[in-house]
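Box 4.2: Ligand-aware structure prediction
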Amino acid sequence: MNQQKRILAINDISCFGKCSLAAAVPILSASGIETCMLPTAVLSAHTAFPGFTFRDLTEDMPSEANHWQEMGLSFDGIYSGYLGSIRQVAYVEQIVDTFPCDFVLVDPVMGDNGKLYTGFDEAFAKELRRLLTRADVIVPNVTEASFLAGIGYEADTHSTDYIATVLHALSQYTKGDVVLTGVHTGKDTLGTAVFQDGMLHVIERPKYDVVYSGTGDVFASAFAGAVMNGKDVLNSAELASDFVIDCIEATVKTSGNRNYGVNFELCIGKLIERLQK
Ligand code: PXL
């Protein structure tokens, strides 16, 4: 019998830009987890690059899931990220209902720095809320959390009151734990707020002047890998925060363009070490 854990990763293929499945698959592999992929769209490059091509794969999703069902496939975890159309929310819900598993992770990919990414709007945010009810853990950044909660985005430093208000509002929509990334805890610090079993923990790390795209996907993938290896939500969020910092430090040394993402490939060895601790 194959005892290796298997996760279903629902995300796009951005052919260039080191995000989505291009980050999830190698990071989950390094974590010892088999990944079954459900691509939501194929883009020439992620949407921060003007002129990107976009092939919507919504129509393929139900037949792919049907085939897995016919094959008798099962998953230990399901991890959803960037969805290519509003209709995909309902398909992901069906998939979660069809393939019961121990761990459903929803990364409500929609925006960052107070703005929605190209292609998303408030209607999408409202639809995506439904998926939160099926999640064991959600990993929004502060922008995504504010759109989901229907609360204005606070720029600059995020006060403890603001974070508590957002988490409280989100708790209407999910019973799962919330791992809130990109919290500006201070001038020189960046935090991750973990709301686990009613308790709030804040993981604080040094802030870098540079902001790279795709770090949310790197975080969520490392987090998923750690949970699938039996670590609890808080330890997994700490591991993922430290891994993102490893990646940023490696990137600052080797590249400059923020849209090119982080050089996580150079840090895979460190990820494996962190998982073994
Ligand atoms: O990293 C988030 C992300 C995922 N997928 C696509 C994106 C983005 C962010 O811009 O454009 C296609």
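In the box above, the bound molecule is PXL. The chain has one domain: 6-276.
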